[in-house]
Task: structure prediction
Amino acid sequence: MTLRIAFMGTPDFAARSLAEIAASGHEIVRVYTQPPRRRGRGQSEQKTPVHQLAEILGIPVETPAGFKDPQVIEQFQALDVDAAAVVAYGQILPQSALDAPQYGCLNLHASLLPRWRGAAPIQRAIMAGDATTGVQIQQMEAGLDTGPILLSELVPIKPDDTAASLHDRLMEAGALMWPRTLSALERGSLEAVPQTDDGVTYAHKISSEEARIDWSRSAAELANHIRGLSPFPGAWFQLPGDKGPVRVKVLMAMAVEGAGEPGAALDDTLTIACGEGAVRLVKLQREGKGAMMAEDFLRGTTVPAGTVLG
Result:
């Protein structure tokens, strides 16, 4: 039996799942994604990665601004789908939408719930120093990532993982879960395991101020902070300059031995003192410039020992 599926998603993370579901032979009758947005220097209107892939696959696309419009709900209900597969869609679905498919809406989430419910689970897991994370498909409820778990895949967090590298592994692992989940749904063998109330944490969106490096933290904490925010939005500090401070992102760093005033350069090779220990800045990006390794950065910008970073 082939299931009738509606797919809802927006970024590259979701597009990989769309490709896997399409390849599994199920009928994707409609794709929902965020409306095109103006991006880049030219501010040209760009379709989302999911939108672009859906057009290649020949699947009709809907881009509603939201699901509060009764007409949007009615059109969704009229599709008469067996299930909706939801991956990083970026829209809140009301109960009427959750109830529309025969088997409801299934959501792929990039953490081991109930840890890291919310918008930024990949970044938060690395920033917190977690050793393991994963991907799960859950039955959606009205609450934020509160639904029962249908399938899980554990993914270790490597010591050198950044948000980008972990994102890609979770994207692949999550996409490969869909054929198994939908096959089990066809057979009626999916077991929904309710989430517990133990260990609930929330992966709130990352603010620019939160991304600012606090040199009073320990070197281990800062190394995790930097990895978790690399490459976007990027942990940053202010470098003193003749024309005022310049914002610099740190895309890679490593904890090393050292001691001194937090934020002070301990040598001229970007070893910076922390509240405990020190970090060596390995890859940086000066505001308005491209990313570069530390040795290349230092060819154009000197940071002598004793310089205090803000």
User: Anything to note?
Assistant: The two ends are 61 Å apart (CA to CA).
